[in-house]
Design goal:
CATH topology: Hypothetical protein af1432
Low-confidence stretches: 11-71, 237-245
Number of domains: 1
Region (Disordered): 43-76
Organism: Arabidopsis thaliana
Order of helices and strands: EEEEHHHHHHHHHE
GO molecular function: 5'-deoxynucleotidase activity; metal ion binding
Number of strands: 5
CATH superfamily: Hypothetical protein af1432
Number of helices: 9
Domain HD: 108-212
EC number: 3.1.3.89
């Protein structure tokens, strides 16, 4: 078996992702602006050794219903209905991993959660609202609770994908009651889709980093060849792979 070291360079934001062969004790990425016109900024993330594997079971927390500050039953009902629909994000696996026969693939919610953590641990970036990045990370795929994870291999055009997701988002916001929080979710989602803000650009890079980090973990844990997922970042990341016996 060959060991492989991969080094990724993000063209758009000078992200460097270093992966020593068959170990995560020193997985590291740095994130800084490319180009003189962009403010200097950096994100540093260090991942320690992977946690010990168990049976994969997680104890269920007590049933707690989070409701808006308003005590009206209609507000509480709409919040619960919205959250119940969002449960699908926890139970719907990411389609790309299913197509490659990955065992126990991550869910959509798993993917968004780690992106949220990336934003949480990131350094402050001039001109970028870190709290907004965290919010955007946990809602950018929220419409997939209804439409599912639509990938390029599904044969659905970008226009049709956007139409379906836009309708799903509108339904979810109405379900939530159409108030300020619903409007905030809709605005964050649209900003991400349109790549229309500095925060959207940062979160889109987090999306790609999370993808290749997850692919690396599946390669190491399950012996999969997921090179295509690394190559899918072409145009955003330059990849150099070093092999040894």
């Amino acid at each position: 078996m060959k060991n492989v070291n991969r080094v990724f360079f993000c063209k758009s934001l000078s992200l460097v992702f270093l992966v020593p062969s068959f170990t995560r004790s020193h997985i590291r990425f740095t994130y800084s602006a490319a180009g003189a016109s962009s403010p200097n900024r950096a994100i540093h993330c260090m991942a320690s050794d992977s946690p010990q594997s168990g049976d994969g079971s997680v104890s269920s927390p007590p049933n707690v219903a989070a409701v808006p500050s308003s005590s009206s039953s209609s507000s509480a009902s709409s919040a619960i209905d919205f959250l119940s629909l969002c449960t699908r994000l926890k139970t719907t696996p990411r389609a790309g991993w299913i197509k490659r026969d990955v065992k126990d693939p991550e869910s959509i919610a798993d993917h968004m959660y780690r992106m949220g953590l990336m934003a949480l641990i990131s350094s402050d970036i001039p001109g970028v609202n870190r709290d907004k990045c965290m919010k955007m990370a946990i809602v950018h795929d929220i419409a997939e609770a209804i439409v599912g994870d639509i990938t390029p291999s599904c044969g659905i055009s970008k226009e049709e994908k956007n139409r379906r997701e836009s309708e799903a988002l509108e339904h979810m916001c109405k379900l939530l009651g159409g108030g300020e929080r619903a409007k905030e979710i809709a605005e964050l989602w649209r900003e991400y889709e349109e790549n229309s803000s500095p925060e959207a650009k940062v979160v889109k890079d987090f999306d790609k980093v999370e993808l290749i980090l997850q692919a690396l973990e599946y390669e190491q844990d399950q012996g999969k060849d997921l090179e295509e997922f690394f190559q899918s970042t072409a145009g955003n990341f330059c990849c150099m792979s070093l092999y040894s016996k």
